[in-house]
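Two proteins, back to back. First:
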Amino acid sequence: MANKLNGFLNNVGQGLTNPKGNLGDFRHAARMFIDDTFRLAPKQKFLFFVNFEINPAALEQFPQLKNRHLPEINMLCKTADLPQFSASVDVKNQYNRKKVVQTTLDYTPVNITMHDDNQGITTFLLEAYYKYYYRDGRGDAREDAYGARNTYSGVRKYRYGLDNGTVVPFFKNIKLYQLSRQQFTEYTLVNPMIERWGHDSMDYSDSAGVSENTMVINYETVLYDRGRIDEDLPATFATSHYDTVPSPLSVEGGGVANLFGAGGVLDGGSSVLGDVASGDIGLGTLLSTANTVKNAKQLNTENITAEGIGLATSTLSTIGQGASLGGIAGSIIPSAGAGNEGTTVALAPNSDNSGSQAPSVGQGQKLASARGRNTP
């Protein structure tokens, strides 16, 4: 009777002695862009966040923004330019040697587009800015202040334009964030002023278009910073309208009927024991225990054996490459094939920033941390 492992061992032997076969594959690109949790992969343009920080003195005049809607405005930004710089450079003659010197640094204005939502929150932001700086926009102006005659009739009765008593700037700063691998890069626009702003056009013939509000922002300088994404970091991020339901591949969300890997029985047992050891026992611990017991009951010898052989095969195939399994330490990526579209990828956070969670790996896939929070 033939040994069931003969084919497996033959394939392993051929893989070790002739790892690429007769034709090289995509491994070079995989090692470049996938290894080390997608460290060198390009960032996605749709992973960004904008935070408008309004001075408290200005917010006092507009309680609607202060009390509720400011975090929502930050979420309604549709597009945003990142800062760009241009230096004026002169070429000097230094004893017959051409010498290039810088003279000035200019900042390119930033364009921000926002959804014109049904409640009119982003429109109210522009309205508040207009009323804060310009007397013309004040609703308390009397109707006869804009008569057809000269505004100076004997004595001046009304105030116009920038004569609004405004001293404190409307915006304290505007912060733009690029998000990737659960890290953010922060660009702070210092002392921003809106150079141009406006509302969209209306068109009866356009049944597919959506309305937008736009602004062009000038600023004095840019400050850079970096950090790890968390709730309210960046400020107002993930504080409202955010999905906090645990991932179905995490232990709290149900886990998987595997012995190894994230969301498996061993992972669930480790999580429960860790909570017990630390004394941090709550509803999450009870859910993890119930799901781990449920998944353990579904295990059988055949599945465990197949899982072990699969792990061994994957480990042997990466010998000599100097990379972690699949190039993504502490994570699960569904295998290629039918039925993977729309799957949720569960990622386990690492201890340092360099090994942070990987971003979305495919169209239609959702990113869910092992804690159940869906963060970029």
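And the second protein:
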Amino acid sequence: MKKKIIIAGPCALESREQMLITIEEAKRTAVDYVRLSLWKPRTKPGFEGIGEEGIPLLVEAAKRGVHPGVEPLIPEHAKRVADAVLNATDDGKLLLWIGARNQNHMIQREMAKVAAQSSRITLMAKNQIWHNEKHWEGIIDHIMEAGIDKSQVWLCHRGFAPTPSQTNLYGYRNIPDYEMTMKIRKQSGLPMLFDPSHTGGNVENVIRITKEANQYDFDGYIVEVHPHPKQAVTDAEQQLTWTEFRTLLKDIKER
């Protein structure tokens, strides 16, 4: 059985203390990339992340032996993070991802150009918020048009925004479309990860929907995990503790 790609860490990087705890827990759990995002897209005004002030923390994380994962909002963010993190070590890796709300095709291409500059960077693209297969295919086309090597690109399904006409028995934050996702995975030939945090929306649903998604051929998972979820400044309700995450990981590996 092929090893699943595992990305885990808090919704957003909040402090050095939080980062240090996260790094140690991630090392204990054999996580491939540690989620340490510096910027947060907002539906309404609120905490937008610690921004560029957090780049030295990413450098420290890389020097401590983990591979950071970040969602840059613009290509300039991606470039600054890449330059700092890759220069911190000789063999460290970096994950950048394009979030569901970042639907400017020019930004998608420019992000891919940044990632293409080093084989140590992987670029992951999430599907857009609305349910549309052609649009998701278009995201992939724009990224690949930038000249990035296929081996550097992953996809991620984070569900689609629910509509009033849809049945949403468990109150998922976003509704997955597994059939469409597996179709795009096959057509693109790219690894497809699943995001149970943004589909589930709360801890109970994250656990439930991960088990649901395990019935399909996902190549990995990106999960929000916080040292103290109740104290999280964003998405507190959907972040697992590291103990909860390790229990969930056993179920993933068993399949």
